[in-house]
Amino acid sequence: MRAFSFRRGPRGSRRSRTSLRTTFAASFAAVAAGVTLLVGLLSYDAAAQLVRRDQQSVFAEVVGDLRSQVRHRSLDTEDYATGDLDHDGLRDDLTRPTRADVQVLAAGGRILDRGSRALPVDAAERAITTDPEPGKVARRDIEIDGEDYRLATVALGGGRGAVQVAQQFSDTEDLLKDLQDRTLLFALLVVVSAGLFGWWLARRITGRLVRLAYAAEGVAATGRVDIQVPVVGRDEVGRLGRSFDHMLGRLAKAEDDQRRLVQDAGHELRTPLTSLRTNISLLHRIDELPPGARAELVADLAEESRELTDLVNELVDLAAGRPDDERTEELTLADVAREAAAVAGRRTGRTITLRADGPQVFEGRPAALQRAVTNLLENAAKFDRGGTAPIEIVVEGRRVTVLDRGPGIAADDLAHVFDRFYRAPGARGLPGSGLGLSIVREVATRHGGTVFAEARPGGGAALGFEVGSGAVDGGRASGRA
């Protein structure tokens, strides 16, 4: 069980987390700022132009009405006086649309009647008052008491004077300036809000990524693979977490298997090494031993050396996964069993019979499968050392069974005979490394199959394996056997 939890990463991990969240928040705020400023400025510019154009249009319309009045009617300065109590005179028609200031000038520029404030009169406007042509106009922008105005002077014609109309536009500009300030303030608030929201959103989005980064940095810094990995969610981050957790789980399992293999191998190597050391210690006295004892000592040394060699070779095969490098080819288990029977027969001197029923062609590694069948046969010969009955091989499609008439397997041992270094109590005095059957399971697993061990009716045991119908696993065996 992987219980270690890595909450904080090693030095430098917090910097990475801050950088990721800050980048996300800054990007979110930058996009919001760009959109807000663009929309705000375009909206302000459109509104400002519309207001200015509307104000100018209204003033131009008032001036146009005034010119139309003086052109089509013979009007005098008294017609624009302020004495109209009903407010339905010509002067009121001018001031009503724009709340403009109207001032009446006599010939020569003298002010006859001014509005709420006196309007300036320059030389061009004095000349307008004596102009014989009605409707002639002079325009200019003026400033009165710090306020900006538009001023138009329209001649009454015939030297009768002129009428001045002034429209204040600085208040409109002040209003637009206030609108601009409010727009910028609103944009600033939106940017700040977007940055805060982006930071909050970044925390939610990147939180699991940060925890995954902590876990990965923890593995890199400590070398431990028993780190608890967050696997919350069904999105890509959740899938990444589950994949990473599964990968660490497999690494932890492989590390545990490797540790157990080393421990078990060390334990198994002690026995032949101790025996060899004891026998070697007697070699300096070999001339003092009787001929029978000397022959027995040499035979023991040869046997123990052979067992040690077999054990080392099987350990190398099991740890390095050497059979995985073998190329696959089309074969049948009947052909594999026939070659394995010939090899095991020469090694053990036992009679081996083969019965094949309906062989099937499949993709497999012949040398690995032959090694598995040979191990089954040598195991049978080891436990049926004094037997006279032949050892049987039964091939049924993709299933191989080796049957012997030995002492059989106890019910409690059936589930463990394919475990590494496992030896039943009755087999601990027999030669062997305890790895032969575990290699059988490795080969079967790499071929998508399983192993089995059963008691044989009438005495003995039936051990074997079955290969799967799918493709051969291209990777190294998991080592879980």
Description of the structure:
By secondary structure, the chain is of the alpha+beta class. The chain folds into 4 domains: 19-72 and 169-222; 76-168, Beta-Lactamase; 225-320, Signal transduction histidine kinase, dimerisation/phosphotransfer (DHp) domain (Helix Hairpins), CATH 1.10.287; 326-466, 2-Layer Sandwich (Heat Shock Protein 90), CATH 3.30.565. The chain has 9 helices and 14 strands. The chain has helices spanning 13-72, 90-98, 123-129, 170-222, 236-281, 291-320, 333-348, 366-383, 436-446; strands at 4-5, 101-105, 111-113, 137-144, 147-155, 162-168, 227-228, 329-332, 352-357, 361-364, 391-396, 399-404, 450-455, 461-466. The strands form 4 sheets. The protein has a 5-stranded antiparallel β-sheet with strand order 3-2-6-5-4, sandwiched between helices. Strands 9-11-12-14-13 form a 5-stranded mixed β-sheet, with helices on one face. Strands 1-7 form a two-stranded parallel ribbon. Strand 4 and strand 5 (147-155) form a beta hairpin. Helix 1 (13-72) runs antiparallel to helix 2 (90-98), helix 5 packs antiparallel against helix 6 and helix 8 runs antiparallel to helix 9 (436-446). The two termini are 19 Å apart. It catalyses: ATP + protein L-histidine = ADP + protein N-phospho-L-histidine. Residues 203-256 form the HAMP domain. This is histidine kinase. GO terms for molecular function: phosphorelay sensor kinase activity. It is found in: Cell membrane.
